[in-house]
Every structure is written in structure tokens, then in C-alpha cells.
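User: Okay, second chain of the day. Same drill as before: sequence in, C-alpha cells out.
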Amino acid sequence: MPRTIWITGASSGIGRACAEVYASQGARVILSSRRKDVLEEVASKLTLQLGLKGDSNFVIAPMDLGDSAAMSGIVNDVLAEVKEVDIMIHCGGISQRSLAIDTSLEVDRRVMEIDYFGTIALTKALLPHFVKRKSGQFVVVTSLMGLFSSPLRSGYCGAKHALHGFFEALRAEHFEDGIGVSLVCPGFIATDISLNAVVGDGSKQGTMDKKTGAGMTPLACAKKIAKGVKKRKSLILIGRSELLAVYIHRFFPGILRRIMRKAAVT
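Assistant: Same drill. C-alpha cells below.
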């Protein structure tokens, strides 16, 4: 089993659930998100919940994905402490809920900076470590919106599509180096993603999408991620009936476009 797992977006949702799953398996987990105090609370609660001895199972590495320039320094600091990283799980990011015509370009840039540029900056900073070791795996939690698009999510879909493009290229470039890439596409997962989603002026939506609130639990999602990662699957689809859209998109794209025009998306 991999010894050291680095997870962004680890303060809540899918990221926190992934931390729980891997820590319960005995892995050392590097926790990253913006707020150090929240990460310390997550580590403390999981240590108690899982009956772990001390806090040596967790390493706290705060970061702001909106600050791409900081990633090299953060990676250097983490590697100085843990020496080796086996798997990088990219869970951090924000979503968006507004019509394209009502969304300022500043909001589009912010979503792209956090969801795309921050993620690839961290990836590029860690990549030489994986190349040197001739092993490693990038696990990128994107969305079904990385495969097709929905109204009110133009900026979010753009960022998720961009991640697929980048990591598919990275997979091909470093296959001979023993580096794996797993793209994870969840459907409706019961997290705060819609509550925290930005709208056209950059403020938070503040409401829960009905289908998101009724979605799979983050822990159930994380367990499926871990199974797919262990098999080094290139694409991990997670969800319920919404996964049918993946196959409609593949074989009947025109039908899916008609469905999405009329779908209740909040």
C-alpha cells in the first residue's frame, strides 16, 4: 500500500473523506487547504475517530491554490519533512453557478486560477520527485462536468475540461517514468460545493443544489476513489443514475444536449 498520500481540499468534502479512508488504512496523509487551524482540527478529529496513536499520521501543509507561485516552495518544504510522496490527490477547488452572460471575466479567471492553474502548478512542482523515483500517481478529482457541460457552470466546466486536457497529455508524456494519472469524475456528492459556489459577481451562491444535497456521501465517494486508485484506473466514474449521461454523451451527444437544455441544474 502507498505510504504517503497528499490531499488538497482536505478540510472538507471529498478531500476530508479521502484523508479518513487513507489514514484508516495506515497511510501517512499530508493535509492541504487554505486554513491551517481547520486542517489541524481535521487531523485531531480523525486521530481520535480512527483510534490512531499520536498525530504522526498527518502532516499539515496549508496552501492557497489561487497562489500558483507558492507551490514550488510548499513542495520543497513538504519533501524536506516526509522525504517521499506516493500519491497526489487533487481535491481542492471551487465551483460556479451563474449564466455566462452574467458572469464577470474576473470570476472566470478566479475559477480557472484555483481549479486549473493552482492544480497544475502543484503538479509541476511535484513532478520531478515522481520522475526521479520512477513512480507516483496523480489523482485528479474533476467532475462529470469535465466530460460534458451544464448550464450555469460555464467557468467551472471550462476549468474541469482543461484539467482533462492537461492530465491526458501528462499521462502520455510520463508513462515510461512509471507515473500514473487517474481522472476522477464524481456526479452528485453531498458536499458544500454548491453552497460555496461563486455567482456572477463573485459572491457565494449560499444555497444547496437539490441533487447535490441528495447525492452520495463524501465517504462513500472516497472509498470508491481509493478502490479505483489502487487499480490505477485512468478514469473513475462515481455517482448513481447521473452516470448514464456519460454514455448518452458518448453515443448520442445530440440527445444529451437537448436534455441539458431543460435540466434542473440547481
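The mean pLDDT is 96.

User: Thanks, on to the next one.
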